[in-house]
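2024-03-11 09:14:02 DEBUG pipeline.ingest accepted 1 chain
2024-03-11 09:14:02 DEBUG pipeline.ingest length=269
2024-03-11 09:14:03 DEBUG pipeline.predict start
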Amino acid sequence: MRPQRRPPAAGGPPGGRPPQRREEGGEVALDCIKQGYNVTSCVVLKLLEWMRVKRGDDAKLPRFSREAAVGLRNFAVDTAAVARYLEAVDRELRSQFPLVLRLTVETETPLAVHLRNPYMPLEIGLAWHPVFNAPYIPATALKGALRAGARRGACGLPPADLFGNVGREGALVVTDALPTSSAAVEPDVITPHYKEPDVRETEAKPTPLVFPVVKPGATFDFFAASRSVEARCAEEVYGLIKEALAEGLGAKTRLGYGIVELRQAPRRP
């Protein structure tokens, strides 16, 4: 009989190597899901190892996704590197655009974005920045949410002219939103109860799906800028963006995900 072991404390011993998981049929260590390692590369590598050493149900993607999502809960974002980049972007935008808004979104509920991210091969994925090695909100997701949520225009321009549409660029440039808080990820779970067709209630075999989300209270900064909208319209544009994002951001908004609060980030000296 295999001896029972007490589960390790979250994060492992201070200064020590994170504990490895040992399973029958081989060993898979998810110890590279941490700052200093490229998380997406780690997930791809460990998935290949997982499939090589596991057998039967243990080899299935949902089980691996559960392990990876739980491992990400202690991930710490390198906010210093992000801050330096945001300051550089701020300076460059203000040297070229008459209207520049630096905005902060704070998540009030879990945020799920890019669930089918091909670079994060999990059952349910999460947008992960390839350079800053951190969760982020892609500009495409932000601008799509703004275009869908805008009920009015600003500074005499209708929403279609501000945010663009298929084949036509809008007047507003929107950047990726990068994390400004260190702890940004937590595991969440959904449980599809009836995956089998015509199944009786007592015969259903629900399978919980554990997946990573941006946790409530995480903050992200992004920029909205324009060459054609004047600086005097800044407050009006800010109000429009705030109203549009009140509709929700990312996936599963009808289930309460993606509720965010928008505010203007303070100017740095």
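2024-03-11 09:14:41 DEBUG pipeline.report The two ends are 64 Å apart (CA to CA).
2024-03-11 09:14:41 DEBUG pipeline.predict end
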